[in-house]
Amino acid sequence: MCFLIVLLSTIFAPVVADPLYTACSTEYASGIFPDIVSGQALCRGDVNSSACQTCLREASQKLLEECKSKDAAIWYEACQIRYSFQNLTSLNVYAGKYPVLESQKKSVSDTVHFYDYLKLLMDNLSIDAALNRSKLMFATGEIKFSRNETIYGHAQCTRDIREDECQECLSFALLDLKGCCSSKQGGIVVSGSCNLRFESVQILQRLKSLDSIPNS
Ligand SMILES: *[C@@H]1O[C@H](CO)[C@@H](O)[C@H](O)[C@H]1NC(C)=O
Ligand SMILES: *[C@@H]1O[C@H](CO)[C@@H](O)[C@H](O)[C@H]1NC(C)=O
Ligand SMILES: *[C@@H]1O[C@H](CO)[C@@H](O)[C@H](O)[C@H]1NC(C)=O
Ligand SMILES: *[C@@H]1O[C@H](CO)[C@@H](O)[C@H](O)[C@H]1NC(C)=O
Ligand SMILES: *[C@@H]1O[C@H](CO)[C@@H](O)[C@H](O)[C@H]1NC(C)=O
């Protein structure tokens, strides 16, 4: 059922799927605009450059349509983009957002021990994303949870922040992930500088195989 919904929205979506989350600050940019606007874009680490560009084009259009504020950000499956009329320092403050995934509406079979496994995986991925330079701040991995359940996850930081900032951002995100999703089949926390996601199905592969279905 979930698969079907994703599939249909992929076929009928004009370019990319709907945004996961849009955040427009409540401070409106009215009257005089300052001279400087900072912007930042990030694609998920496994997304190729043409799909990345398509996603970012869609994202920036949508963001300008939806937000008329001083700071704004939008997150998609494949990319995220944000701008601010304030300086970049204020952009990098951790502010987790929690898009609700289909998989988050279902619980895992063993809710008592699930978070131990999730934390093990996510701590590992956070260290990998922050410290392994060959990963370019994007790490994926999996851990077997029960006979028939495997947790797949990824962790990513924007490449303008330091290693310790990346680790810190991801540790805040993991706390938030614990809050929303610690016994669910999936969950995602996004922030301006990092994001963290897990699913009990292999999402990267699923998204890839969906992408390769012709739009006819
Ligand atoms: C940027 O913002 C930070 C925190 O909001 C502030 O402390 C800093 O002075 C600002 N820097 C500039 C150059 O405006
Ligand atoms: C944690 O990371 C190490 C090294 O990257 C890897 O060998 C190990 O399998 C990982 N463990 C989990 C639970 O992901
Ligand atoms: C960093 O990632 C590469 C590529 O996946 C891997 O071969 C290497 O073992 C990792 N290094 C550490 C220190 O985990
Ligand atoms: C895994 O098995 C348990 C019981 O053996 C069942 O309750 C649960 O729904 C299964 N989970 C999945 C994802 O198939
Ligand atoms: C890039 O990814 C998209 C979506 O996954 C795919 O349709 C396209 O063929 C890929 N392009 C290249 C050059 O690999």
UniProtKB/TrEMBL annotation:
Key words, A-Z: Repeat, Secreted, Signal
Record bears the keyword Repeat: yes
UniProt-listed Pfam families: Stress-antifung
Signal peptide as annotated in the record: 1-17
Domain (Gnk2-homologous): residue spans on this chain: 1-88, 96-203
Main location: secreted
This protein's GO CC annotations: extracellular region
Subcellular location: Secreted
PROSITE patterns (UniProt xref): GNK2
Protein name: CYSTEINE-RICH REPEAT SECRETORY PROTEIN
Organism of this sequence: Salix purpurea (Purple osier willow)
